[in-house]
Amino acid sequence: MTRLLLAAVFGLSASTAAYAQDFDEFDESGNTNAVERTTSRSEVVREVVKGLYFKSNIGTAIYVGRFVNWVQPGTAVGLAAGQDFVDNERSSIAWEVNFVQGVHNGLYNSDQLAGGCLQAGTCLQGDLRTYTLGAHLEFATYPKRRFGIGGRLGGGLMLAPQMVLLEGVNDVVLTEGLHGKPHPVGSGGVELEYYSKLSHFSVGLNIDAMYAIGFDLSVNASAFLKYTL
Q1: pLDDT at 119
Q2: What's the predicted TM-score (pTM) here?
Q3: 3-class DSSP state for residue 151?
Q4: Where are the domains of the chain?
Q5: b/e map of 160-182 (b: 16 or more CB within 10 Å)?
Q6: What's the topology of domain 52-228?
Q7: Average pLDDT over residues 184-206
Q8: Alpha-carbon distances of 54 from 101, 150, 177, rounded to whole Å
Q9: Distance (Å, whole) CA 158 – CA 125
């Protein structure tokens, strides 16, 4: 019995020593690679994907300036593409180009004329369509691993083409006024974004103030779905 116990202890000790030598993986100089392997195993794995992305928005647009009593809140839909060209663990910077269409209903033509739209230079077609091509630069921070908040600044051009002729208003008034030319746009706002556990997908909210020179000031709020390659 004593011989069997001694044999078992000796075999266990030899197995442990062999395992320890295999784990340390001594190199030719006698140094171990255990530290390097431990470092590589402790690398932080990021759970969000950054880079080139595509985004779709849907929400509402409200005019808050001189058209506030003339044009009703409407629907805004958009498509965008961009890229995070600065990507840190707690911050990022991205460029983005987007195209947004706005759809609004307004006052009847007779009500606009009775309200003095000719004198004020605010005669609009009843159903208003706007098309805006713009670009943004966005800076975002990440207080939580999957949650980001950012600020946006940008500009572009907006066009509100004439689709109907206002009764009692000639083409010259419209062509030289609000519908006949593109309007430079400046915009700024905030973005909230949540990176889902579905790889490459995130959702969020954009809230932007947009001023179209020669047109009006509007506030747009839209939800978005984003896919990053």
Answers
A1: 79
A2: 0.76
A3: strand
A4: 2-41, 52-228
A5: bebeeebeebeeebbeebbbeeb
A6: Porin (2.40.160)
A7: 96
A8: 17, 17, 35
A9: 16
